[in-house]
Amino acid sequence: MRLLDIAQFASDSLHGSRTRTLLMILAMSIGVASVVVLTALGEGARRYVADQFSSLGTNLVIVLPGRTETAGVSPGMMTGQTPREITLDDAEAILRGNAVKRIAPLTIGSATISRGALNRESVVVGSTFNFLEIRHMSMAVGEFLPPGDIHDGASVCVLGNQIARELFGNGQAVGQWVRLGDRRMRVIGVLSPQGESMGMRTDELVVVPVATAHQLFNTSGLFRVIVEARSRDAIEQTKKEVEEIMVARHSGEKDVTVITQDAILQTFDRILTTLTMAVGGIAAISLAVAGVLIMNVMLIAVAQRVREIGLLKALGASPSQIRRMFFAEAALLSGVGCVAGLVLGYAGSFVIGRIYPVLPVSPPWWAVLAAIATAMGAGILFSVWPARRAARLDPVTALAGR
Amino acid sequence: MIELSQVSRTFTVGDQQVAALRGIDLSIAAGDYVSIMGPSGSGKSTLLNLIGLLDRPSSGTYKLDGGDVTALDDLQQARVRSEKIGFVFQSFHLVPRLTAAMNIELPLMLAGIAPAERKARVIKLLDNYGLTDRADHKPDQLSGGQRQRVAIARATSMHPAVLLADEPTGNLDQATGKEVINLLEALLEKNVALIIVTHDPVVGGRAQRQLHMVDGQIISETGRNP
């Protein structure tokens, strides 16, 4: 018997019981679709987080004052309040590391920015020339902070896009004077709109030289130092060098925390991948259930078609041919269910992607493969028993319909 | 061609052994026209099933074309059935979801014959049995006589050496039954051994060899009624 004939025969018998076939395909496709959609969501969340992190910059090592025992976010990291500060001199010292490409010291506070009668509260970031490139930001007009001595507290500022619009409307901001806290400053540039990254709205920032920020907030400690490694491979070396430099400068005490962007990202990545796999696994259970359903339906089919099986035997069908026929039927059911499920799943992912545009929803290839494999596997595996049962039927009793 | 010697078949019903056939000796040559008659439970159908390799004897040997077929495994038996034996049943046994043409094609498909040749053979068979205009009808759209014609066409599609008919007229009225018998008898010209199991003395009486069975034994064999 030819393969094509077996397929033809199987599809004829599926056509023969249309309701049953449609219900089976429905069950199978819902299983496959739920795997696809759920893993697409999980993968979307993972990629969203990854994108957010990479928008912070690449190959970054972050130095925080104080020491945290575990990796991840700690209260000290959020507030930056620690016994020993990281000073501007520390930051400059870090630059001596071999693997270090450039650094951007960071001081953060808030102050009132005003122009004439207009004033608002704003987050003020003190940093240096390198901050722009490390953070992958770009200028709309004017210049970013000037390069030069890190200790030089010039009275200049760069405005976030929204702040510039609020203070100057559509007018020219660059070259104008604003008041920030108790100092008058000249606006030298405006950032281009960047949207949000990691919960910080760069459009509402005011960036000033780090020394100016220290004077403004009357402090000498840095919130953190962002260090960019020369390459991805140099990240670990950078981390080590930074730690050594800081320990040497802080009289042998390791009182800073050095975290790599990669480490945080990997943690998130791991959590979210696990989550994706977990929801995918839950969805896969529905696939297994669909497989059991297929077995059930095939068993009923065998029982309903006992006479037909007897006839086929009388007409010269061998047990293996009969096995293959029922096998083909189950495979066809799972196959069509699978394709329908994939279409449904991708359509669902597309719709979700439209509803939540920030989420890069797309099912991961491994989940799609796993869904197909589980569906086909369950369908075929669970048809083994019914098919064998059909093949073993005694032709005489089968013909009699008993 | 068919040689049964000391063939017995016992069934176990509950804890009782029931002998359906006892020590049957029978030989049938190509082109023979044999009818098997007898009361219900006399073992006629069991004998037919044995000859058709649907059942195995409990003891004794069965030689078909000189070869012992009782020792063959399921696969080999299926091949013998496919190549040498055709069945016609009382209740037609057509696959309800397949058209007449597809039902006739079934044995050819199972035998793995190429689609082009299958098609040619089916067209010829449909023509032979006057079913050309019924080719695309499903069995439930056919009359009893037409259904049995489809069944005969199917049984002969592989040019079998033996044609086994189990009460082929049992579900048909007299006229159609006669027509069906004529079609079956026409096969004798092609040197097919035709074996008919029947209750009907009129049908059975047409055969050259008439076997009468009682309690699993052939009690007498008579020739054609004058």
Feature tags:
heterodimer; A: 402 residues; alpha+beta; 6-stranded mixed barrel; two-stranded antiparallel sheet; elongated; B: 226 residues; alpha/beta; Rossmann fold; 6-stranded mixed beta sheet; 7 helices; globular
Molecular structure report:
The complex is a heterodimer of chains A (402) and B (226). By secondary structure, chain A is of the alpha+beta class. Helices cover 55% and strands 18% of the residues of chain A. Chain A has two domains: 3-52 and 267-399, no CATH class; 84-254, no CATH class. In chain A, the strands form two sheets. Chain A has a six-stranded mixed β-barrel. A two-stranded antiparallel ribbon of chain A has the order 8-9. Chain B has 226 residues and is of the alpha/beta class. Chain B is 33% helix and 29% strand. Chain B has seven helices and ten strands. Chain B has a six-stranded mixed beta sheet. A four-stranded antiparallel beta sheet of chain B has the order 2-1-4-5, with helices on one face. In chain B, a hairpin with a 2-residue loop joins strand 1 (2-13) and strand 2 (16-28). In chain B, helix 3 crosses helix 4, helix 3 packs parallel to helix 5 (144-156) and helix 5 runs parallel beside helix 6. Chain B is globular, with a radius of gyration of 17 Å. Chain A binds chain B through residues 1-2, 5, 9, 12-13, 15-16, 307-308, 310-321, 395-396, 399, and chain B through 49, 52, 54-55, 74-75, 78-79, 81-83, 85, 87, 89, 93, 95-98, 102, 106-107, 109-112, 115, 154, 158.
